[in-house]
Amino acid sequence: MVTGRSPLAPPRSRTGASALRPRLAAATLLALCALLLFSAASLYVGSRLVSPTAVSRILVDALTHLGSDQTSLQRAAALDLPVQDYSAVVDLRLPRTVIALAAGAALGLAGALMQVLTRNPLAEPGILGVNAGAAFAVVLVIVLLGVSSPALFVGASLLGALIATLGVFMIGTLGAGVITPERLTLAGVALGAVLAGLTSAFRLSNPREYSILLLWESGDLSQRGWETALPALPVAALGLVLAIALAGPMNALSLGDDMAASLGADVHRTRLLLVLTITLLAGSATALAGPIVFLGLMAPHVARWVVGPDQTRLLPLAALLSAAIMVLADVLARVVVWPGEVPVGVVSALIGAPVLILLVRRRRASGL
After folding, report:
1. 79-357: what fold?
2. How far apart are CA 276 and CA 270, in angstroms?
3. Which end of the chain has fewer beta carbons closer than 10 Å to its terminal beta carbon, N or C?
């Protein structure tokens, strides 16, 4: 029987916690700088060559006239710039940057919450079947309803994530009526496998729609604009607020059910809120960017390696890191085969897999 503390449990020593503060400050500053640098690159780099001066003028103009009913053609004429340049920055690069930031942060937080919920440092958002449910719902609206607009995928993705979560709870509580990490994990893996199989079956039975499904499932951001971002951003923001609010109860939960209860934490309510928050975060991220792998697993690992398992420190850093990595992946996706693009999901996997292998080989990083 293993009697040691969970690798996800916060440190007991106040001295040890104080020693982490300089590291936390340095890591947060570095992550913020990287996030700003990659975000700037996302705005200034693209398949269309637009001079940095023109991009700066366009961004200032867009912020100055935020909410204006003027079209890109009118604003471009006012700046004496080609309308293609104005549209490339405001209608393509700016929403892509916002989507990458929001989806990345949501996936990083969802991964950190999932690892505490299942008490498994190698867990990631897809383990509860949330991503599979969201993807299956999008496949249904594409195949059965003929929907091809990414904007309409948002509602389907969120609804699929919610239904998958409810299904996991129903399966996980059958018989015993008690929610445990083990039962949730098994139910999520089983339901995710079923939904993935059904998704493949629909895809193979409808070759005409295969290209649309393939584009969405690969995490391609080139077809996503404000019509995709605006419906999902409030959901992601709500999930972010809930995740930060749950940091304290998560620290108690990582000590074990008995210890958490003795510290005054409501174990079952905390788990329910964690599942709800993971659904909001993973569902909104899938709606924004499609199924993205490794990011929700990698970012919390990096954050835990840097600042330890205290969720009050880990969650903000994980959100910053995952957002920065997502934006970097999107920038690289635009330039590796310029003037063409590759899906950001492919690039994030190429970045995430080697980093994850390096981390899990480090005893301190893996905590296993």
Report:
1. ABC transporter involved in vitamin B12 uptake, BtuC (1.10.3470)
2. 10
3. N
